[in-house]
Amino acid sequence: MIYLEDYFPNGEWPDSIAMDANLTVVTDSARNVVKVEKAGESLPWLSTLDLFYGKHQYNILVRRAREADVSITFEPKGKTYQTVQVAGEINGWNPANGPMTFDGKNWSVNLRLNPGRYQYQIVVDGSWMLDPGNPVKVPNGIGGVNSELVVGEKLGRTVEKVTLRCGLWQEGAISILPIRTDSFVTTFAENEIFAFWENKRIPFVKSKDSNKMKDIVAIPEEAKTLKRSYIRIFGTKNQFWTNDILIPLENGKPVLDAAALTESDQQKNVIYFMMVDRFLNGDTTNDAPLNDPRVDAKADFHGGDIAGLIQKIEDGYFDSLGVNMLWISPIVQNPEGAYQEYPEPRRWFSGYHGYWPVSSTHVDHRFGTDQELIDMVKAAHAHGIKVILDYVANHLHAEHPMIKAHPEWKTELYLKDSVLNVRLWDTHRIGTWFDTFMPSLDYSKPEVVEFQTDSALYWVQHFGLDGFRQDATKHIPTHFWRRLTQKMKQQYMLPNGKQLYQIGETFGSRELIGEYVGSGLLDGQFDFNYYWTLKGVFSGGEKNLQRLPESMAASETAYGSHSLMGNITGNHDMPRFISYAGEAISNGEDPKEAGWNRDVQIKNKQGYQRLQLLQAWLLMGPGVPVIYYGDEIGMVGAGDPDNRRDMKFSGLTPEEAETKAIVSKLAHIRKNSMAVLYGTTQVYVQGNVVAMRRQYLGKPIWLVANLAPRPATFQFPELTGLSEAKMYFGKGILGEGEVLKLPGLGFEVVG
After folding, report:
1. What whole-number distance in Å separates Cα of residue 583 and Cα of residue 672?
2. Less crowded by CB within 10 Å, the N or C end of the chain?
3. Residue 473: which of 508, 428, 519 has the closest Cα?
4. How far is it, in rounded angstroms, from Cα 186 to Cα 583?
5. CA separation, residue 132 to residues 120, 128, 129 (Å)
6. Model pTM score
7. What is the DSSP string of 607-622?
């Protein structure tokens, strides 16, 4: 289903539509929708939907799904069960989404899944268990194990069989080179390369000059008239997609120097997220803790405010760190009093976090004023830093005037079977309440969609913000996000010639996360599935390092090679990475209760080195790095709210100071490297060493990381002329034959 308003926000319907002969289109102009269906026997791996508006033609890439048919079978071995289900990464860990059927002998379910690895369990009459028919078991990251389903072969490569990279650029053309894989080199036919300039397909040419540029893409002359435009290249070979390539152009020439990039080039984003209340108290006159004896100090207001953010912007903290986008927690007015959460042990909390809105347009007085927010955004922009606001669209607090005026806007607190509809994250994903005092909104009502999208737009138009982090994305239907994005384009982006960025939060499968990402939806979401792999590999809990390239390949397949997905060091809803890497909490421990009941502190200082390795991988890798405040120094913390301690700016230990210096240096390397920002990605595993090569128009940069506490070596996979390369950190020693020697838990950037 292709919604044309995603590409043409004013809803223009084309004069005509064309497609590959093996595909057909079913149009619905009333809904502005085109449905693409199979028509012939040969389904192409890549094709285009061609739209004609007068003399103008636009081409939208259409890719064949890579899903494969898979079945899971459970043998009851003589036992009788009423219900058997499968729950796992395949369906958001929701048993209701995985019912199995009984044929008189076995229970089974048929699935269609993309290539990858999927953890799961069997649920028999409500009891969870490993699949007794599957010998493959893997750690779940929290002290237990799951069964694992493997779909597809040759996992672990960036792509199947062939990786595209761009080689030379000469006089208006870019060469396309296949990387040697599986001991063969291939070239491409015309229908195997799809290149686009500004949503228009451009020619792929077989050059006669085989010594220099064999397969080339010609840059249109029209590109010379635009300061910034983009070339996008997609390939298919051996019945698989290749990676995709993204090349920014400036007046028709590829950008070779990252200094030429501007704020509109979203690939350069490095996000820093802070809880406003816990960051810095810049104005003590607005402090207003509840001082309610029912509320523990950890759950009360601590005094952080907008004035504190202004102070750290103006003293250059973020400039020095190398971040260029601030994600601030919600600052909308929250209730004045305390509320008791529904689940046991039913603790009391204040609204210090900002996620309980009682107004849709007012800044909470404990954080500051409207003018301070305007001043903060202006100060950030003066430093080349963008600001995105954490926006709460899913729910309003029970005290919100609109909920009181329109109780029909709420979803039902009790379901038809009298089950309390609270925190049913997966079984009632759309409409479940976060707590009994926080009703979710019923987005089947158009007036609710209009109210909340207008409220979001108010913050951009009134305060000059640069976009949103969208809370609880998966709990809101996609038509809300489509309407919000349409309004943002129509009323702000197009009239002002400015890009806004939206990143969402969804815990679930890559397929579910990807449903909310697209031209007319969100720009990206946080890639939690990738983070779980990173956490296991870099904390030392996952010993099979092939999990890393496999997870990267799965994310690249799901979201693309140059997506704007957020890759996190952690966030405010989970224990901090260093708490595991530094043995502050154990995998089998309840992290939330640990944070309430004991003083959680780092026991093993190797945790700092492991955190540095994680930071290096994120800041040198594809996607948008997201640094959770305090992770630049290695702040510890168990579950919420222990992971939201007050930020520490002075009195750093040697390990904290070193970690901060490394993060800063990595962020500045990223900022100045086209290979890191736009390069193709390849990952290599040799023993306990993982390496990542990023390459842009023939220029590579490497990150090589030793995940073992003892020294190790890495043999570069091909002679790359690195003898003259720069060692950015001075930790590695490059020996003869291009062998890099690294200390234990050390890394090097080579380029």
Report:
1. 35
2. N
3. 508
4. 48
5. 12, 12, 8
6. 0.94
7. HHHHHHHHHHHHHHSS
